[in-house]
Amino acid sequence: MSQPAIQSGWFTAPSGSSLTPTGAAKRSEKDNPYITKDEYIQSPEAVGSGISAISADNFYTSGALDKAILRASSWVNRHCSRWFDVQTIDETRTGFTVKPFNPRLVSVYTRNSPIQDISGIWIQVLKFFIQVQTTPIQDSYLQIFPDIGIFKIVPLLSSAGSGTGSPIPAQILDKVPLGVLWYSYTFGFGQIITGYTLEAVTTNTVYQVADFNYKLWAPDQTLNVYVDATLQASTLYTVDFANGVITFLSDIGTGHTVTADFTTNNTVPADVKYATILLTTKYLLSGQQNPMKFKNINITGYGVSFGEHDDVMREIKEMLAPYRKSTMTLI
To answer: Is 62 in contact with 93 (CB distance < 8 Å)?
Structure first.
């Protein structure tokens, strides 16, 4: 019997649960690759290291390269305390007071930026959620500073705080920080692409973007696949988001045009991509030549020293210094 796949950053909430505003699971950031396999093997670092799609080590076809790229991308995220690809997540903040009798502007620092869209804001009191109006933007109580990851809201515009039936008297909400602020937003440096023509890799079955500058797809964003401009059900194909590949489960026949709407993550900052390339190369080569990361190896009559300083890691950290998040995430 097959086992369900383990999902990273997954928070389970039963259907219709009062634990979240929508009853769906709370969405957290997930580690996704910042470069494709094809983009990596065309880099000078891969060429100089002898790593290619047909090299004897078999990194490309065995899955080892995919894992090394994901590991390198994950390290970049941890080092910078933020994510750079496009994702839609939910965050919560506590420790603020809802002031129904004296509404005030509240500033919220998101964990990630740039902000592309804020799809929902709620104030939770016990199991009740009061939604803050965010659309249309010209009529909402929302102001966004997308590049620095800040938005400002008036959390509750009501004389009694009764909105949708809060069970807590407004007088208490005015003085005690009982509320939990929930918000859903989309962030990242990705770019939306529509109607892009895919090329056949395997006749009538496997299709991929020809230009590697568009191959890195955002897994949790909208993906539409069309055959001759007819939208295809997602059950008819599988997707390799990390390399921009569509595989139809059955032969679609000859003479068809396959197009797709997707969000590409190839537009993340160049420094982030280059840091990922350097780290990927380091992981692959050190795994072959020094898998335990020893600095010194002493064998009777023979000694090897790898040195105390790692120039590659120093370069990577300096390269990523401007992208490290240092803003305090407080209200």
So the answer is: no
Contact 265, 218 (CB under 8 A): yes
In tens, the pLDDT along 140-198 reads 778 899 998 999 887 765 444 344 444 566 666 677 776 788 999 999 999 999 999 99
Per domain, the residue ranges of the chain are 25-84+271-331, 87-187, 191-264
Cβ–Cβ under 8 Å, residues 101 and 156 = no
The rounded distance, in Å, linking the Cα atoms of 76 and 227 is: 37
Spatial separation of the C-alpha atoms in residues 146 and 109, rounded to whole Å: 10
Q: Measured between alpha carbons, how far is 315 from 106 in angstroms, rounded to an integer?
A: 39
End-to-end CA distance of the chain: 48
CA dihedral 192, 196, 201, 204 (to 10 degrees): 120
Distance CA 106, CA 154 (A): 6
DSSP annotation string for 225-281: EEETTEEPPGGGEEEETTTTEEEESS---SS--EEEEEEE-TTS-HHHHHHHHHHHH
The answer to whether the beta carbons of residues 109 and 330 sit under 8 Å apart is yes
Question: b vs e for 271-289, b when ≥16 Cβ sit within 10 Å of the residue's Cβ?
Answer: bbbbbbbbbbbbbbeeeee
**What is the identity of the amino acid at 123?**
I
130 bridge partner residues: 123
Query: How far is 268 from 191, CA to CA, in rounded Å?
Result: 9
pTM exceeds 0.90, yes or no: no
Q: How far is CA 31 from the centre of its chain?
A: 6
